[in-house]
Amino acid sequence: MRATADTALAADRAPWAGLASWDVAVATQESADVATLTLTPPEPFSFEPGQFNMLHLAGIGEVPISISGDPADTGSIVHTIRDVGPVTKALCALRPGQRVGVRGPYGTSWPVGAAEGGDLLIVAGGIGLPPLRPALYQALSSRDLFGRMTLLYGARTPADLLYTDELQAWRGRFDLDVQVTVDAADEDWRGNVGVVPGLVSRAQFDPARTTAFVVGPEIMIRFTVRALLTAGVPDDRVFMSMERNMQCAVALCGHCQLGPYLVCRDGPVFTHRALARWLGIREV
Amino acid sequence: MPQTLEPLLRGHKFFAGLDPDHLAVITGCASNVVFPAGVFLFREGTPADAFFLIREGRLALEIAAPNRGPLVLQTLDAGDVAGFSWLIEPHRWEFDGRAVERVHAIQMDGACLRGKCDSDPRLGYELMRRFAGLATNRLQATRLQLLDVYGHARDR
């Protein structure tokens, strides 16, 4: 027991020691700047929906990336990555057979179980859908335990939508309401045009019995949360995943501090109630 | 007893809570309309003599751009309201409104309503209050679209 505790402590203090290297099994281009990597861990790998891994490329760098696959599948770990800089560009360029360093999983998770018995509302904007997909998989795997289940998803244009085949399949389900919107489109697009918070007022849910999970750019989160609170969803049932400058992922470096929290350790999933005070401070 | 559109107006969220007397007055300006997919309910620059309470279907607000084809600014669904140009001079549509799919709506005659608002300022204030809320929501949504929140500063 003592040895285990010491090992854990050592791993926390030197998280890069003994970094595991995983094979890229599948690489899929989702859109112009987003790719999905399916990785094969050396041994079964368990995680909770909402957690993230640190992906490491020797000589280039390391980034936190949410796990976006099915938590029930411990043999294939999926990460969807947007090319926004040198490390993510190199990750998006990986091909099957190449390897990537992985450490994790880290962070808090979506309380899918706590949402049972009521309505579940999942709201994603842009690259916010990948961290929510594991929660949706888990909820759908025990669909009977929930009331109404809704996915609201917004992107910049139709070409920026992720997981389009899966979205199509989800839309075909009678037990899941999927509403997709884009900020701009041409006349060929037959779906919604408008912002994600606008979908909240159209969605069918019982506010007092609803649990909401929200991920997206922080401005989108802010307006979506406002719409949810206006609709009557309690602030301790509105959960969101924050994206801050995570570097070490083990609460050593302090780069991801948000008020009294370190996002890598105390997040990335928070209730709105916990964060509301700090999100309102411009300097934080 | 003749059937009127009053129950449909009462059931539309835009008129939720409206004084029954006012509802009875504006029902005289309402007509039930259906537009097949692809049909334009209104065209940019033409006189705006109506607004639409959408009951079913989807409407696209769009603007024609040379060499780019129509660009969709926003879509409106059941429960939404299309048009406030009828209320604001010079009463001309600012955009095209095209039925993306078959649209069932209640068309409200703008000239008729303006006359009733002029003769009953309480009704005028109530309608103006509701349209001001609608315009504010649209403005906020447009600001969010302009912010292009899904764009990313270069990072790691």
Overview of the molecule:
The complex is a heterodimer of chains A (284) and B (156). Chain A has helices spanning 2-13, 86-92, 129-141, 164-171, 196-200, 218-231, 263-266, 272-279, and strands spanning 20-31, 34-40, 52-57, 61-66, 77-82, 99-106, 119-125, 149-155, 177-182, 185-186, 192-193, 210-215, 238-241, 257-258, 261-262, 269-271. Chain A is an alpha/beta fold. Chain A has 2 domains: 2-105, Beta Barrel (Elongation Factor Tu (Ef-tu), domain 3); 113-241, Rossmann fold, CATH 3.40.50.80. In chain A, strands 11-9-8-7-12-13-16 form a 7-stranded mixed β-sheet, with helices on both faces. Chain B is an alpha+beta fold and 156 residues long. Chain B has 4 helices and 8 strands; from the N terminus they run H-H-E-E-E-E-E-E-E-E-H-H. In chain B, the strands form 2 sheets. Chain B has a 4-stranded antiparallel β-sheet. Chain B has a 4-stranded antiparallel β-sheet with strand order 2-7-4-5, with no helix packed on it. In chain B, helix 3 crosses helix 4 (121-147). Classes of the chains: A alpha/beta (284), B alpha+beta (156). Chains A and B meet through helix 2, strand 10, strand 11 and helix 6 of A and strand 5 and helix 4 of B.
Unreliable stretches of chain A: none
CATH topology call of the largest domain in chain A: Rossmann fold
Total strand count of chain B, please? 8
Q: According to CATH, what is the class of the largest domain in chain A? A: Alpha Beta
Total number of beta strands of chain A: 16
Helix content of chain A: 25-40%
Supply the number of structural domains of chain B. Answer: 1
CATH architecture of the largest domain in chain A: 3-Layer(aba) Sandwich
Q: What order do the strands of the largest sheet of chain A run in, or round the barrel if closed?
A: 11-9-8-7-12-13-16
Low-pLDDT parts of chain B are none
CATH class of chain B: Mainly Beta
Name the quaternary structure: heterodimer
Number of helices of chain A: 8
Order of H and E elements of chain B: HHEEEEEEEEHH
- Considering the protein shown, what is the CATH homologous superfamily of chain B? Jelly Rolls
Q: What is the CATH third-level topology name of chain B?
A: Jelly Rolls
Largest interface: A-B, 36 and 31 residues
Overall helicity of chain B: 25-40%
